[in-house]
TrEMBL record:
Domain PROP1-like PPR: 122-182, 259-402
Organism: Solanum stoloniferum
Extent of the PPR repeats: 280-314, 315-349
Catalytic activity: Endonucleolytic cleavage of RNA, removing 5'-extranucleotides from tRNA precursor
Keyword Magnesium: yes
Database matches in InterPro entries: PPR_rpt, PROP1-like_PPR_dom, PRORP_C, TPR-like_helical_dom_sf
Gene3D superfamilies in alphabetical order: 3.40.50.11980, Tetratricopeptide repeat domain (1.25.40.10)
Disordered: annotated span: 44-128, 677-735
Protein name in UniProt: ribonuclease P
Biased composition (Low complexity): 64-75
Length: 751
C-alpha cells in the first residue's frame, strides 16, 4: 500500500485540495474506474470541527488522533462521544478535559473575540462589495452603459454576491432601454417620455449609434466587481464627456446590442424570480418594455394586470408598452381596452397616450372614437402639441370626416348641454355635413377668432367647484404646516379679507436678480392696485425672513414694510412654512387675481391634480415684467386656451407654443366648407341666423371674415376658401339648396 505524507495544511488549503480532488474526478469520470485503497499518514496542525467552532473549545491533536486512528479530528457529535461509554448497563462516565482547570470552558452563548472579529470583518467586506456594486450600477445607469452593467451582473454572480431589488431594477431598466433601441441615461434629467416602439421613427434622429463602448476589451479582463468598478472610475471623465453629447437625445444602440440586451434582460428577470426578490412597479414596467421590444402587446398588458393582482399600483408609464404595440399594430379594440384599464385604476392618459389612440382611430376611420378623443384632449391637455395638431388636421381633411355628422339637431338640447358643461363644448356628436376647412388663425384681445369671427368663451370654476378646490388646498396645506400655522392664516383672512388681488412677494422681489428688493414689490403693488375696481390694497404674502435682517433695517425698506402693515396688506408666513400654500389659498378663496411668474409645476402643485387647478390658474394668474416706465402686467387671456366646440359644430383648437403673448398663439379654426346653411325645420338649428348673433359672433365691419396674416400659403388657402363660400351665397348657392331639398340629400363637392 502506498504511504503518502502531506505537509501541514491550513484549513483553507485543505478544503481547497479536497475540492480540487473531487473536481478532478468529476471532470474525468472514465479515467478512474476503481480507486485503490490508500493508507495515508497526515500531519495536521489544527483543524476545528463545526462544533468546536461554535463552542470555542479546542482539543489536543495527539488526543484526537487516538480517537479514530485516522489522524483526523473526530467529526462525531459530542453527545455521541459522551454516550459511547455507556454500554450493557455500564455506569456512564463523563471525562473532563485535563486542561479544564488551567483554561476555563467558554460559554457557547458568548463567542470568542476572534470569532466576533472574523464575523465583523466578513460583514464589513460584504458591505463594501455591495456598496461597490451599487456604485458601479449607478455609474452605468447615469451613463447609459448597458454592457458594463451586464458585466457587473456576471461578476457579481461569480463572486456569489446577493443582489437586491435595487440592483435588479437598474439592470432591467438598462436592458429594457437598450432593447427598444434608445437609452435615456436615468439621471440625465431630460424627463422625456415616448411611446415609440422598436423600429418606429423617433424624434431622436441625431443620436450617434452606440455599438460597443470604448473599454469593451476590458469587459472580460476584469475578474472582480471591485476591479471593474475601479476601471470605470478611472475612465469616468471620458465617459461623462460622451454621455453629455447623448444626454438630450439619448444613446442609440446597434441591432446586436439590442438583441443582446433583450436576451440578457429576460435572463436577469428569471434570476430575480428564482431568487424570490420582491418585484416593484419599476422592475415590472421594464419587463413590459422588453415585451414591447418583442412586439408582444399581450405580454406587456399581462404584466400590468399582474401588478394589480400582486398589490402593486401601476403608473402611467406602466401602460405605455402595451398601448404602443396595439396602436402600432392597428388593433383599436385592444388599445382602448388598455385605456379602459387605466381609467378603472385611476390613471388618466396624457397627450402621448391620447395622441397614439387618436392616430390609430383616424387610420381605422372610427369617427366616434375621434370625437371622444378630441374631448379627452380638451379635458386633460387643453392646448395640443404640433404633432397632435397634424393628426387633427389629417382627420378633418379626410373623406370619412366629411361624411359623418347630423344635418338637423335640436338647438335647445345643444344650448342646454353647453350650459350644463360650463361652456365651450356640448358633447352631442358631430354637427353638420360636408367637407371641413381647417384654417390657421389667431384670436384677438377681445377673444374673437380673426378667421370666422366666432367669440370664444372663458371657462372658470363655478362657486361649488371653487369651494371644493379651496378646501382641498387647505387640507393639504394644514397637513404640511406646523403648529397650526395655516389655521391661523385662515382666521386672519376671515378677519381682514376679502382681497381683489394676491401678490407672491418673493417672486416679485427676486425678479431677474438674486437679492430681494422690496422696491419692486412696492412698484407691482401700486401698479396692480390702480387696475382693481375698488383700488383696494392687494394682499402681499412674504416669508418672515424677507422682512427681517440688516438689509430690511434700512430706512426706505423699513418704511415700505410699515406702510403695508398699517394698511393690513401684508402677511408674513412663519419660520419653517412654505409661503406658496398661503398665497395660493388666498387667491382661490377670494376668487381674485394672483400676481406671480411662478409656473406652478413642481411637486407641490402636482398634488392638486388636473381637475380644477389648470382651469383656475389660466383665469386668475397675472404675469408681470418690468420696463423703463415701471411694471407691465400680462393679464389672463381673453378666452380659455382650450379646445372649444361651438353650438354650430365649429371647432377651435389652440396649438402649444412658447410665445409670451397669447395674441400671437396659433389656433385651428375648423368649419364646414358649406356653412352657413339653413334648414327647413324651425325646431332645428339655423346657422345663417346665428351668424349675426352677438352672443356667438364678434362685430365685424366686412362681410368676409378677416384673414390671418401668416405665411403666404395659409393666406392663399383662406382666400380660396372665402371665395368658394361667397359663391355659395349667390345664384349657385340657391340652386344648390333647391337641389338638396328636392333630393333630400347633401351635395358635397369632394371630387
Amino acid at each position: 500500500m502506498a504511504s503518502i505524507s502531506f505537509k501541514p495544511l491550513q484549513p483553507t488549503q485543505f478544503q481547497f485540495q479536497l475540492q480540487l480532488y473531487s473536481s478532478t474526478i468529476l471532470l474525468n469520470p472514465f479515467k478512474f474506474h476503481t480507486l485503490p485503497r490508500i493508507s495515508s499518514s497526515i500531519h495536521v496542525t489544527h483543524v476545528e470541527t463545526p462544533e468546536q467552532e461554535i463552542s470555542g473549545t479546542r482539543r489536543d491533536s495527539k488526543t484526537n488522533s487516538n480517537e479514530n486512528g485516522s489522524g483526523f479530528s473526530s467529526f462525531t457529535p459530542k453527545y455521541k462521544r459522551v454516550d459511547s461509554g455507556q454500554e450493557n448497563g455500564a455506569k456512564r462516565v463523563v471525562l473532563k478535559d485535563r486542561n479544564a482547570k488551567l483554561k476555563p470552558k467558554r460559554r457557547t452563548s458568548e463567542p470568542s473575540s476572534s470569532t466576533t472579529n472574523n464575523k465583523a470583518k466578513a460583514e464589513s467586506k460584504k458591505s463594501k462589495i455591495d456598496s461597490t456594486l451599487r456604485i458601479g450600477l449607478d455609474m452605468c445607469s447615469k451613463r447609459g452603459d448597458v454592457l458594463s452593467a451586464i458585466r457587473l451582473y456576471d461578476l457579481a454572480l461569480l463572486q456569489g454576491i446577493v443582489m437586491g431589488q435595487y440592483h435588479y431594477a437598474v439592470l432591467l431598466y438598462l436592458c429594457a432601454s437598450a432593447a427598444t433601441g434608445l437609452i435615456h441615461p436615468a439621471k440625465s434629467g431630460s424627463g422625456n417620455r415616448t411611446l415609440n416602439a422598436p423600429n418606429e421613427p423617433s424624434s431622436h434622429n441625431n443620436s450617434n449609434e452606440f455599438n460597443v463602448i470604448d473599454h469593451d476589451s476590458h469587459l472580460l479582463s476584469s475578474s472582480t466587481v471591485d476591479e471593474f468598478v475601479q476601471f470605470m472610475k478611472n475612465s469616468a471623465k471620458k465617459s461623462n464627456l460622451q454621455s453629455v453629447r447623448h444626454e438630450d437625445n439619448g444613446i442609440k444602440v446597434s441591432e446586436d446590442v439590442r438583441h443582446y440586451a433583450l436576451t440578457r434582460g429576460f435572463e436577469i428577470y428569471e434570476k430575480m424570480l428564482s431568487d424570490k426578490v420582491q418585484m416593484n412597479e419599476a422592475t415590472l414596467t421594464s419587463v413590459a418594455r422588453m415585451a414591447m421590444a418583442l412586439g408582444n402587446g399581450d405580454m406587456a398588458f399581462h404584466v400590468v394586470k399582474q401588478m394589480k393582482e400582486d398589490g402593486i399600483n401601476p403608473k402611467l408609464r406602466s401602460y405605455g408598452p402595451a398601448l404602443s404595440v396595439f396602436c402600432n399594430n392597428g388593433d383599436v379594440d385592444k388599445a382602448f381596452l388598455v385605456e379602459q384599464h387605466m381609467l378603472e385604476n385611476g390613471i388618466y392618459p396624457e397627450e402621448l397616450e391620447l395622441e397614439a389612440l387618436l392616430k390609430v382611430s383616424i387610420e381605422a376611420g372610427m369617427s366616434e372614437k375621434v370625437y371622444y378623443l378630441l374631448h379627452k384632449l380638451r379635458e386633460g391637455v387643453r392646448q395640443v402639441s404640433p404633432s397632435t395638431a397634424d393628426l387633427i388636421d389629417k382627420w378633418f381633411n379626410s373623406k370619412v370626416a366629411s361624411r359623418v355628422g347630423k344635418r338637423n339637431w335640436d338647438v335647445r338640447s345643444i344650448h342646454k348641454a353647453i350650459k350644463n358643461g360650463g361652456g365651450g363644448w356640448h358633447g352631442q356628436g358631430w354637427l353638420g355635413n360636408g367637407k371641413w376647412t381647417v384654417s390657421r388663425a389667431i384670436v384677438g384681445s377681445d377673444g374673437c377668432c380673426k378667421c370666422c369671427a366666432e367669440k370664444l368663451v372663458t371657462i372658470d370654476l363655478d362657486p361649488e367647484e371653487t369651494e371644493k378646490f379651496a378646501k382641498s388646498v387647505a387640507s393639504i396645506a394644514a397637513q404640511r404646516e406646523r403648529n397650526s400655522s395655516f389655521q391661523k392664516f385662515q382666521r386672519w383672512l376671515d378677519y381682514y379679507g376679502p382681497f381683489e388681488a394676491v401678490i407672491d412677494g418673493a417672486n416679485v422681489g427676486l425678479y431677474s436678480q438674486r437679492k430681494f428688493r422690496p422696491s419692486k414689490v412696492n412698484a407691482v403693488v401700486n401698479g396692480i392696485r390702480q387696475m382693481l375696481p375698488s383700488k383696494k390694497w392687494p394682499l402681499i404674502v412674504l416669508h418672515n425672513r424677507r422682512i427681517t435682517g440688516d438689509k430690511m433695517d434700512e430706512p426706505f425698506n423699513r418704511s415700505l414694510v410699515e406702510k403695508w402693515k398699517n394698511a393690513d396688506a401684508i402677511y408674513a408666513t412663519p419660520t419653517g412654512s412654505n409661503d406658496d400654500w398661503y398665497w395660493l389659498y388666498a387667491a382661490i378663496k377670494f376668487r381674485c387675481l394672483l400676481v406671480t411668474n411662478d409656473e406652478m409645476r413642481d411637486h407641490l402643485f402636482q398634488l392638486l391634480g388636473n381637475d380644477f387647478f389648470p382651469k383656475w390658474k389660466e383665469r386668475h394668474q397675472v404675469r408681470f415684467s418690468f420696463s423703463e416706465t415701471g411694471p407691465v402686467f400680462h393679464m389672463p387671456p381673453p378666452c380659455s386656451i382650450v379646445i372649444q366646440e361651438s353650438e354650430e359644430g365649429y371647432w377651435h383648437v389652440p396649438i402649444a407654443s412658447e410665445l409670451e403673448s397669447e395674441e400671437e398663439r396659433t389656433w385651428f379654426c375648423i368649419r364646414r366648407a358649406n356653412s352657413p346653411m339653413e334648414n327647413q325645420d324651425s325646431s332645428t338649428v339655423n346657422i345663417s341666423k346665428n351668424v349675426g348673433d352677438p352672443t356667438h359672433k364678434c362685430p365685424s365691419t366686412s362681410s368676409d371674415p378677416p384673414h390671418n396674416q401668416g405665411d403666404a400659403k395659409s393666406s392663399t388657402r383662406r382666400k380660396n376658401q372665402v371665395k368658394v363660400t361667397g359663391k355659395m351665397h349667390g345664384s349657385h348657392g340657391r340652386e344648390l339648396k333647391a337641389a338638396e331639398e328636392l333630393g333630400s340629400c347633401v351635395v358635397d363637392f369632394q371630387i
